[in-house]
């Protein structure tokens, strides 16, 4: 039996060993991996990041939630599909409105983020009867609906933006913000990274890609400067873009960098092809009176959505479509900088039987 030893009278108090947590160097974190305060939700750091209009590292802020709920008008007992589950912010709002008795199918091709989001929604109390996650691109929507034992759904949402978790993580290669491998694949297990695309593409083909996918005004010069070269990292590509534009301002060069990254991301993930497939499938998977909302982030996407909805309205497939694009409120743009380019369009399927458009 151990003895209870007391300190001698007048002796100084015993010093308790305290191990300080590892801190990043300097006043503010510079690298994604160092942002432990944000990752661990420590103190008031998250509140300060949110107040500045930015997004805490490793999270995502859903855009235009109120507007999406207004146009989709989810009702208890209905079945919805979130074609781009991401962090699950839109899905959480939809699930709350669909209960009791409603169901949501969540699709996402990202094998890294999907399990995290599924776990988060489960922790919020949405069990398998209310929510099912599927690792697939939204071009596979009819197959998912069939696997769920359904013939159609009442609501479809597609948010075509890249999630903050993907943008902020340099390992994914979506941004020049931090140095990382030049990848950009939504599913890193499939397809070729952006570095491989640039290395094998010709100048004229790259210039066309930059125009078609991002409306890049300096496409010809950038195509000549970048095509066929090896870029191992995001920052190496960013620096090469700046060197190729010596006569433009730093801000204008920064916009070109973002447009080039956008164009490459769209190409690497074949996003326009997937969107075209989704737009063709929508009238076939939506129940009578069903609603669809699509959130886009650049003109190429918005043009395709607008044209498809207008064609469907003329064919009698859609009874109603958005006459004007909806944008984030001034307050949301101040509170969430990444919401600024968002555009929302919606359509409602006719209650009557209509001839479905040909593929």
Short summary:
With about 350 residues, this protein is α/β, with parallel strands linked by helices. It is about 40% helix and about 10% strand.
Overview of the molecule:
The chain is of the alpha/beta class. 40% of the residues lie in helices and 12% in strands. Helix 13 (271-285) packs parallel to helix 14 (299-314). The termini are far apart.
Which CATH class of the largest domain is shown?
Alpha Beta
Tell me the span between the first and last alpha carbons.
84 Å
Q: Helix and strand string, N-terminal first?
A: HHHEHEHEHEHHHHHHHEHEHE
CATH topology of the largest domain: Rossmann fold
Q: What is the CA-atom radius of gyration, in angstroms?
A: 24 Å
Task: Compute the number of strand runs.
Answer: 7
- The oligomerization state is single chain
- Estimate what percentage of residues fall within beta strands: 5-15%
CATH architecture identity of the largest domain? 3-Layer(aba) Sandwich
